[in-house]
Amino acid sequence: MVVEEYNEIARHYRIKETVGSGGFAKVKRAVHLPTGETVAIKIMDKVALGADLPRVKTEIEAMKNLHHHHICRLYQVVETSRKIFMVLEYCSGGELFDYIVQRDRLSEIESRAFFRQIVSAVTYMHYLGYAHRDLKPENLLIDDEQNLKLIDFGLCAKPKGGMSDQLYTCCGSPAYAAPELIAGKSYMGNEADLWSMGVLLYALLNGFLPFDDDNIGMLYRKIKSGKYDTPDWLSSESLILLKQLLQVDPKRRITVDELLNHVWITKEMGVPVEWNSKYQTSVLDDDVVTEMSVHRKVSRETMKAELEKWNYDYLTAAYFLLLKKKTSGRPVRLQMTLDSEPHPVVPTTRLLSCSVVYKETFNTIHATLYTLPKIIIRMYFSESTKKPLRKARTPRPGKKTRQPLARNHRDNSLYGPPPSEPMSRKNYYRRDSDGDTLDGDVWSLENCFPHGKQQCPESDKHSWTKETTPLKNSPCLPFTDDYRKSLNMEMANYESQSNPLSPERKCKSVDDSLHTAHFEPMTPSKQKKSRMFGSFERGLDKMKMILTPGRKRLGSDSGPRKIKASYNVSNINRCEAALLLDELKRIIPTKHMEFKENGYVVRCQMRDDFGKVVLDFELEVCHGLCGVRRKRLKGDAFVYKRVCEGILADVDS
Ligand SMILES: Nc1ncnc2c1ncn2[C@@H]1O[C@H](COP(=O)(O)OP(=O)(O)OP(=O)(O)O)[C@@H](O)[C@H]1O
Fold first, then answer.
1. For the segment 421-437, what is each residue's pLDDT rounded down to a tens digit?
2. What is the per-residue DSSP string for 291-360?
3. Which of 26, 28, 42 has most ligand 1 atoms within 8 Å of its beta carbon, as the pocket-test mutant?
4. What are the recorded GO MF terms, alphabetically (predicted)?
5. Whose C-alpha lies nearest to ligand 1, atom 27?
């Protein structure tokens, strides 16, 4: 039963809303019940991961070794027969990308404050022998104290021979990729990271990318040339540092050691970047151990011995979260007893990190007793709207299949009607990422490196499945009320998610980046090429709508939501919500996107020619000054930005 997949995690966490999703995962906010602390839970489906499962292992292993105040902390890992849950430090401030979007570009002072944190995290990683290989503003989250936390270690590499070892796998996001990497040469992970940091710094200071082009070939040429615009507002020190970072010859590129003390980095602060971790893991905290031992009714020594196993189980999570409370000056108190008794998870594989002993003992008993699911599972699609599904093209294992270059073409057939091959109910459930009727081989984290050798897997070895859209004939189907309710449901809502986790690739190899070439070129008038994000905001600002009173929206009797100003809300003057919504709905299909409407929320999805959802975001018309809340759920941030700009430019025209 699907329910069982969540039992283990539900013992200690109350799951809340989805806060993001990537190629691999859906990320939910959750509350850790024993401490009351908020966490993020990254949920991955093993079948959907397929051959990318080793990347998850890479990420978990790296996060277990990396303990730094600017690296997102891993608290717990739960592996069930079909799911992997990573419980992570929650970053409430969103992505650095969105932060820049809101501000057009950052001041030099603010850029420096953020960049120092990035330098600190990356230097720490490099000293521990790790290269991140996917540094970009989407992978830097902001916590509630405005500190950056680096995430997404699925592509990181820890060369056996240390940083001097050459790497060969071409991965990461193309706009941030170093010239030696896109040239297909061997490269050094740390040098490639420094190039990406140059791109990042440029984006912070300017609000657009140094190398950008709709055409991937052209983008590569620009990167290899190392030539970029230097706007007037850049100080001479900034220009020097950018030049040192964006050196085409990796051997002439600045090193992290030089960076720590760089004149731009230390300007106005006077001190070099402190890269040593502020976290202490070699000695356990006495107060936390005492609190936990009292609750577990064991001696402090026993408690210490359990914690020192660093199993990344519920005990590790409780330890880290109590420690977090302590460091932020709050009482080190558990609000409920730490329950060691497992729920009846019936894993086909051993958990990666949880104590296996108790699981094996109790699983047998509970598997027998546990018959009634505790929660109701809803399917939000009614029969009439259930989408016909089909299996997407399945690249043959072993055969390296690249995403077709055709994505470069601006050919509508790429977005043509989704394949209509119907899928049986059985198959429907079979491919549901949160479903329990999936069959076939399910790998575990333990057996995903059969030869004990970590490889960057060829992500194209998936058996892709896709969900065709009910929008084929009708571009505007409202969500049902059930779905609306389900948005607020906690456990029961997993089955009713509108967008089951799709097995999108994690490794955005350079060829993969052709996703970015999907979009119509902007006409000169629409092209605000020099700006990375601002046009989106401006486009919204310029929307003028005619006032029409009192129109009601399906499923939104109460009208648009009132939302406070936030980093992802754009205010628009002089408009009426209903008309703004109509206009958005008119424009979105012209961008070859599907959408679903739920009240004043329009969820937009774009698929590639395999039918895979490559971009997924929400636009919500809000009340007040009339604003649009935007939320990227999935897909490349720059593609998202371009699509949104395109929509708004059309609304504006
Ligand atoms: N710890 C966190 N706190 C808050 N939000 C988070 C956290 N981790 C991830 N997210 C959100 O979820 C999104 C997806 O997470 P992540 O990048 O780890 O998933 P992924 O499947 O590995 O993504 P990708 O395909 O980009 O590699 C992030 O971009 C971010 O918006």
1. 333 322 322 333 333 22
2. HHHHHHTS-HHHHHHHHTT---SHHHHHHHHHHHHHHTT-----SS----SPP----SS--SSS-HHHHH
3. 42
4. ATP binding; lipid binding; protein serine kinase activity; protein serine/threonine kinase activity
5. 506
